[in-house]
Specification:
Layout (H helix, E strand, L loop, with lengths): L1 H18 L6 H25 L4 E8 L2 E9 L21 H14 L21 H6 L2 H6 L10 H4 L6 H7 L17 H15 L3 H13 L1
Antiparallel strand pairs: 1-2
Helix pairs in contact: 3-8, 7-8
Length: 219
């Protein structure tokens, strides 16, 4: 991810530098834009090779204006379907940033505190240890410092039809490998619980909260 972020920062800086030059006439502006896009095309096509991925979509936004939206390569290896600016990609754990930001909004609004106990909002939340279950805070959910190993319990949700609540309920059968708040263990289930707190406190679903507070602002 850090390489992709660096690539985006480079591209944005490229446009910023060009935007700060003296103001050219319309014909010169068009020529500069064409040259900039041509240079970026080469950069992004090299990135496909460097990172060994079949395709990607790039969007550059400056001062709330869409500067570039374009696809490169193919939708999957061996396919002849080209990526364009409207191709959908799975964003995986980037959704965790949305969940953390959603909770931060509720904290700013005074509706929750980071130190609040999870069971105050999700009474069914239970882990292997009764003590940990009672003491677990919202901050603990986001810090990956339960007592679970990284990816512990992922097979409870991956490829299943269990509801979000059912997945969280089944976490109590996962045996700990660390002491509580003793070590780092990346946990998708804990973030799922965090998302359900957003739903419980806001009175809407996690999906609708994210759509309203974030995605609609970027549409």
């Amino acid at each position: 991810m850090k390489y992709i972020f660096s690539l985006a920062v480079f591209a944005l800086s490229f446009f910023t530098i060009n935007a700060q030059t003296s103001q050219p006439d319309a014909k010169t502006k068009a020529a500069i834009k064409h040259q900039n896009e041509s240079d970026l095309d080469g950069l992004f096509k090299r990135a496909l090779q460097d990172f060994n991925v079949p395709g990607m979509a790039i969007a550059i936004v400056k001062d709330n204006e869409l500067v570039l939206a374009k696809g490169y390569g193919f939708r999957k290896a061996g396919s002849d379907q080209l990526v364009d600016e409207n191709t959908s990609f799975a964003i995986a754990s980037n959704t965790k940033a949305f969940t953390a930001a959603a909770l931060a909004i509720l904290v700013d609004e005074g509706k929750i505190k980071w130190s609040d106990k999870v069971r105050d909002y999700l009474p069914y939340f239970e882990l292997y240890s009764p003590y940990v279950s009672e003491e677990f805070t919202i901050r603990d959910l986001l810090c990956h410092r339960s007592d679970l190993a990284t990816f512990s319990g992922d097979l409870i949700w991956y490829g299943t039809t269990h509801s979000r609540e059912e997945i969280i309920r089944r976490a109590k059968y996962l045996k700990p490998v660390y002491g509580f708040r003793e070590a780092y263990g990346y946990s998708n289930i804990m973030f799922l619980a965090a998302g359900e707190i957003v739903a419980q406190v806001s009175g809407t679903t996690w999906d609708d909260f994210i759509q309203t507070h974030f995605l609609n602002h970027w549409a």
